[in-house]
Design a protein that fits this description.
This protein is 42% helix and 14% strand. The chain has 486 residues and is α+β, with helices and mostly antiparallel strands. Strands 2, 6, 7, 8, 9 and 10 form a 6-stranded antiparallel β-sheet that branches. Strands 1-3 form a two-stranded antiparallel ribbon. Strands 4-5 form a two-stranded antiparallel ribbon.
């Protein structure tokens, strides 16, 4: 069956990093079926033939491609600040890598069954969280934010017990430039296995930063690159109101891609304390704390590399790595400020911009105004003022903003067009996501999911018949909560 698919996979992670994973196979499942298939992504990677009954066997882990060497990857991680030395792929498998146009991508399954890292879990996933990750990944991709992407969502024919009872079993097949995490390095650093940390770092550098391979200080430069990617990623998250929800070190990639869309959501009304995760009781990963936690995670990554940065000179290593970590926040804030200036239509730097932006967020905080709607409405004075209960402060701020954009060299029509190109009209509104997932879970009908993904694929362009996708939820609705799905 699998021979006819003719898909070439490489297995550099399994082959080059002995002892960094466990060879493993997915569970047999009674009735594998593809319910959503990412045709555009598949065509780009040469994986079109997976959209078939034979492909469903592959994409659930029930069968392996002839060239595949499936493995469960080992990693550790700080989970809500507490270190777990042995986590790993407890319900996931790396099937191998697709190489196209000199780029390497992982083909990875989530929900394919128990592995040696399952820690008492069932190793399974259910359709709701699988489809959530599909939706979120495609939305982030369309917004231009680095992310893992779903190749397919499959059902297995099983019924899996979760917090709301039995739900349809499912497997997500996803694509990433790699699944190497901060926790991947922590796994070996915690064991003081410096040779293994070096081996993993060399592999990661060759894969993600090959220009560093021959530099004398390549490990320090690698830390800087990861810091730069994370600083930019967090600025992009913040610019669109995204809340990851579970920024543990095992959920932070060294590639700078968003990974593991568990209890994630997009903020409706602006509030730095916005929190959706049902398990984050202390608000560790609230919207406004995300950059701080990213810096904390970077510090843990830096600790893992100390023996490589300055071998035999621990004080020097700490100083060099500490400088990188300390530079994270200024770098992040500069990127964030540039993004926010662009969202407000500003390109030519002006000393007044910091004050203008800080005034804006002071105004938004506590005003009960939808974050996404505000920026989209900003060019229209009447519309944006109507979003506020008290029109006085926003009227004053808007007048300052209008005076500021007059200093731009572009005509106003071009400024507003540029703003529409960066301020989304459509995001994965929480109530729309939940309605679509509810339909799919309870009836097996993915029509609403498919329609939502279609709208989110062009988030900056107004679409006929899609007005409901741009509207916030009714403010009388109960506080929104999300779950990991494990």
């Amino acid at each position: 069956m699998t021979e006819t698919l003719n898909i070439a996979l490489e297995n550099s992670y399994a082959d080059d990093l002995s002892g960094f994973s466990v060879s493993w196979n997915g569970d047999m499942v009674p009735a594998p079926e593809i319910v959503l298939f990412n045709t555009d992504l598949a065509e780009n990677l040469g994986l079109e033939t997976l959209n078939s009954p034979a492909g469903a066997q592959i994409l659930t882990g029930a069968q392996a491609l002839p060239m595949s060497k499936p493995v469960a990857m080992a990693y550790a991680g700080h989970q809500f600040g507490n270190f777990s030395p042995k986590l790993g792929d407890g319900r996931a498998l790396l099937l191998g890598e697709i190489v196209t146009d000199q780029q390497r991508f992982d083909l990875h399954l989530k929900g394919s069954g128990k592995t040696p890292f399952s820690r008492g879990g069932d190793g399974k996933a259910v359709i709701g969280p699988v489809l959530r990750e599909y939706i979120m990944g495609e939305a982030m991709h369309a917004l231009g934010i680095p992310t893992t992407r779903a190749l397919a969502a499959c059902t297995t024919g099983e019924q899996i017990m979760r917090q709301h009872g039995r739900e349809p079993g499912a497997v997500l097949a996803r694509i990433a430039s790699s699944h190497i995490r901060v926790g991947s390095f922590q796994f070996f650093a915690a064991r003081q296995e410096t040779d293994q940390v070096r081996q993993l770092a060399d592999y990661a550098i060759a894969r993600h930063d090959p220009d560093l391979a021959d530099q004398d200080d390549k490990y320090l430069q690698f830390l800087i690159r990861v810091s730069e990617r994370q600083a930019k990623l967090l600025a992009q998250w913040m610019s669109v109101g995204f809340v990851h929800g579970v920024m543990n070190t095992d959920n932070m990639t060294i590639s700078g891609e968003t990974i593991d869309y568990g209890p994630c959501a997009f903020m409706d009304r602006y509030d730095p304390q916005t929190l959706f995760s049902s398990i984050d009781h202390a608000g560790r990963y609230a919207y406004g704390r995300q950059p701080v936690m990213a810096q904390w995670n970077l510090a843990r990554f830096a600790e893992s590399l100390l023996d490589l940065i300055a071998p035999g000179a621990p004080d020097t290593a700490v100083q060099l790595a500490g400088d990188v970590v300390n530079n994270f926040m200024p770098m992040h804030l500069k990127i964030w400020e540039n993004l926010m200036r662009a969202k407000c239509g500003l390109t030519a730097p002006d000393p007044s911009d910091k004050s203008l932006l800080s005034g804006l967020f002071q105004l938004l905080d506590g005003a009960n105004v939808d974050y996404t709607s505000f920026f989209r409405a900003l060019p229209n004075q009447k519309t944006v003022i109507s979003l506020f209960t008290d029109p006085g402060p926003i009227t004053q701020w808007h007048a300052k903003w209008q005076a500021r954009i007059q200093t731009e060299e572009r005509p106003e029509t071009q400024i507003f067009a540029d703003m529409d190109a960066i301020n989304p009209l459509y995001i994965p509104r929480n109530h729309m996501v939940e309605a679509a997932l509810k339909q799919a879970t309870e009836t097996g009908d993915t029509t609403q999911v498919e329609r939502l993904i279609s709208v989110l694929s062009t988030p900056f362009t107004e679409q006929a018949g899609a007005a409901e996708y741009s509207r916030p939820a009714d403010q009388s609705a109960a506080p929104y909560k999300t779950f990991c799905g494990t």
